[in-house]
Model the fold of this input.
Amino acid sequence: MKENTTVKPYNAHEGKKEQVERMFDSIAPRYDLLNRVLSLGIDVQWRKRVIRKLVASNPQRVLDVATGTADVAIMGAKAIPNASFVGVDIASQMLDIGRGKIRDQALQERIVLETGDSEQLRFADNSFDAATVAFGVRNFEDLEKGLSEMRRVLRPGGQLLVLEFSSPHIFPFKQLYNAYFKYVLPVIGRLTSSDPRAYQYLFESVQAFPDGTEFTRILSKTGFKQPNCEPLTLGICSLYTAVK
Done:
C-alpha cells in the first residue's frame, strides 16, 4: 500500500492547490503538444475509451473536473450531440487555451469552461448526469473531499469516470516505465518547457497516487457504488468507473 503522502510541484511553503495552479499555468502553451509527444499519442486513445463509456450512458449534462484545455469535454460534445458540458479547472491559462479550441470547433453553445476548485464546486446537489476527470485526481489537495464533491453534484445513478496514470507491475515493463518517467521525461521537459519541474512532479505524483484497488476503496469510502478499475496499456493508465 502506498503511503498517503502529499506530493507538491515545488518545494514551497504554499499549499498544493496553489502550486498546481501555478505549474499548469506555466506549461499551458505547450501542454497539448507535450501530452501527445510524451505519451506517443496514446493519451488520445485513453480519452476515447472514456468517451465510449460516457456515450453508453447517454448523459444530458456532464461535468468535466480538472478539464485543462478541454480535450475530454470537446470529444464528449462531438460524440453526444444532445449533451452539454461544464468544464472546471483552477488554472486560468489552461482554460483560455481550451476556450480557443472550443471556438475553433464551434462548440460554444454546448461547452462552458469556468475557473473552479474540485473541492468546492459551486453547483447544486444532483446537477449532473455524469462527471469525468482525466489526469486530474492525483493533483487534488484533498482527494476524498474532491471525490465527495463530485458525488454530491451527481444525480442518483450518475456515472463517475476517472482516467489517471498508474504504476504497471509486469516485469520488465515496470522497470522500463519507471526509468522513462524518472529520467527521460524530465530531460524532455527541460528541453521543451519553461517549467521542467512540472515533469519531475508528474513522476513523483504518479508514484504516490493510491492506484488500482486502493483507489477503488477510496471511491467506496466516499460513497460511490460499483467502483471498478480497468488497466489500460499494460497498466500505464487506469480507467475507474463508479456510480452514485
The longest strand covers residues 154-165. The mean pLDDT is 89. Strands lie at 61-65, 84-89, 111-115, 128-134, 154-165, 225-232, 237-243.
